[in-house]
Each structure stands twice: as structure tokens, then as C-alpha cells.
Design goal:
It is found in: Nucleus. The chain is mostly helical. The protein contains five helices and no strands.
């Protein structure tokens, strides 16, 4: 592919991920390139949105919490909340789990 220089993600890794689907038997080179480029643009958009809406502007950095906040607060990225959950302390999780168990016991 003559446009290989225009992408940053490793094409071989994207091919491997695509082939992991049982629905995919063969992958056209153009489809592979376009999927790789689209993935790269999506990640760039997520990173820029997270940076612009997070604390990163002040510190010139991007953190996991910025990404998780963007996934939770932006409808476009809401589907990512399962893989980018907000971090909580173990004691807070255990407390909420205990409360849920108490509520279940009330029924």
C-alpha cells in the first residue's frame, strides 16, 4: 500500500484483531488500511476531546481519568464506559457493594 506512511498504528496488529472475529475469513488490503486509518482517527478524536475537556490543558497531559470522564459524559463515546470505567478506591467499591447487599436483603 502506497499510503502506509500516513498511519501510525501497526497494520499487522489491526489485521490480527480483525482476524480474531469468526465472521472474517479474508481481509482486503484496502479495507485493512481504511480500518487502521479510521481507528487511528477515532483514537485521536477521543484523545483530543478528553484533553480539551479534562484537566490536561492545565498540566499539558492526558490521564486515564480524563478518558473515563469523556466516555461517561460525552454521548458519542458513551459506548466506551465498560472499557474505560471511572476508577474508584477499593474501600468505596466495597462500601457500595455492602449497601447493595443490604438493599437486596430488605426484599
Amino acid at each position: 500500500i502506497k499510503n502506509k506512511k500516513n498511519i501510525s498504528l501497526p497494520i499487522s496488529r489491526v489485521r490480527l484483531i480483525m482476524k480474531s472475529s469468526p465472521d472474517v475469513s479474508s481481509i482486503n488490503q484496502d479495507a485493512l488500511f481504511l480500518t487502521t486509518k479510521a481507528t487511528e482517527l477515532f483514537v485521536q478524536h477521543l484523545a483530543m476531546s478528553s484533553f480539551n475537556n479534562g484537566a490536561g490543558k492545565e498540566t499539558n497531559s492526558l490521564s486515564y481519568s480524563d478518558l473515563a470522564h469523556t466516555a461517561e459524559e460525552t454521548e458519542t463515546f458513551h459506548f466506551l464506559t465498560d472499557i474505560l470505567p471511572k476508577k474508584i478506591l477499593a474501600r468505596d467499591y466495597l462500601k457500595s457493594l455492602e449497601q447493595m447487599q443490604e438493599e437486596d436483603a430488605d426484599f
